[in-house]
Write a structure and sequence with these properties.
This protein is α/β, with parallel strands linked by helices and 270 residues long. The protein has helices spanning 2-27, 36-46, 85-88, 95-101, 121-128, 147-160, 178-190, 205-208, 230-242, 245-269; strands spanning 77-83, 107-111, 134-137, 169-175, 199-201. Strand 3, helix 6 (147-160) and strand 4 (169-175) form a beta-alpha-beta unit. Helix 4 packs parallel to helix 9 (230-242) and helix 9 runs antiparallel to helix 10 (245-269).
């Protein structure tokens, strides 16, 4: 009958389907466990090569040619950077450039919103147990003094104690957007995490009059021309404390190189 004929055709159709699927799967090389490594190899080939030193894609974004041959060893100061967690996830950060240029003994970086128990004990000991001068570089018009004044006071203190050289100073920097930097400073003040003998240093126009270039790190927008990126700020302050202007140029070289590469990438994409 017609009904029986339809039933037969349906039976034939459903019995053929599994055979078709099995044949297609057997033709797929990736279904064979022995060929699994082939797809893995293809994936590896598609991944960009990363430079072991600067940890950037090479050769397109590698900045090693702009780095000093040997990390710089600071003699008169130590940089202590508190980096906001959000800043640590940004690709266009300037702080890693400074870390590549300075020796491990010259800079310490901790990722957190404020100092406290969660911070490495060696960093907290440097803040709380050391009697050496501690400066916070932060724009504070009410309580901050200029960098020039801080340098003069440091020199006077050494003369009063008949020391041949001033004591090494720990310089604290807050790394983040200006919004987050304000929040970090407020949190540290409210929780009383700053040492009592810490001085607040504000970079004023008189401190920056020798700067020949403004908006050097122009891949991110500062609130004003007077605001510097973290790398620029560290480089300028450190060069003044160390009394060596060449340090500033050495630390700025990889920053300028990275910014140049960044702009070239944007131009190529257009």
């Amino acid at each position: 009958t017609t009904a029986r004929g339809r039933l037969v055709r349906y039976r034939v159709y459903w019995t053929l389907m599994p055979a078709i699927v099995v044949i297609n799967m057997s033709d797929d090389p990736s279904a064979d466990p022995n060929n699994a490594s082939l797809s893995d190899q293809k994936k590896k080939k598609r991944k960009r090569s990363i430079c072991e030193r600067c940890e950037r894609p090479t050769p397109a974004a590698c900045i090693c040619e702009a780095l000093p041959s040997e990390p710089l060893e600071l003699k008169h100061c130590h940089c202590l950077v508190l980096q906001h967690p959000h800043e640590s996830r940004r690709k266009n950060r300037s702080l890693p450039l400074i870390e590549l240029c300075l020796s491990q003994q010259s800079i310490s970086v901790s990722v957190a919103r404020r100092f406290g128990d969660a911070i490495d004990s060696t960093i907290m000991d440097r803040l709380n147990k050391s009697r050496n001068p501690i400066w916070l570089i932060y724009p504070d018009s009410e309580n901050g003094i200029s960098l020039q004044q801080a340098l003069q006071e440091r020199k006077s203190e050494a003369n009063e104690t008949n020391e041949t050289e001033s004591k090494p100073v720990t310089i604290v920097f807050l790394d983040g957007t200006w919004k987050y930097a304000k929040e970090m400073d407020q949190a540290n003040r409210e929780e009383k995490q700053y040492p009592s003998h810490m001085k607040r240093i504000q970079l004023m126009e008189s401190d920056l009059k020798e700067l020949t270039r403004s908006k050097r790190f122009d891949i991110r927008t500062p609130p004003s021309d007077q605001h510097l990126s973290t790398a620029e700020c560290i480089s300028w302050v450190v060069s003044k404390v160390e009394g060596n202007e060449d340090i500033y140029q050495t630390l700025m070289k990889p920053l300028d190189f990275m910014v140049e590469r960044w702009h070239s990438f944007k131009t190529q994409k257009r």
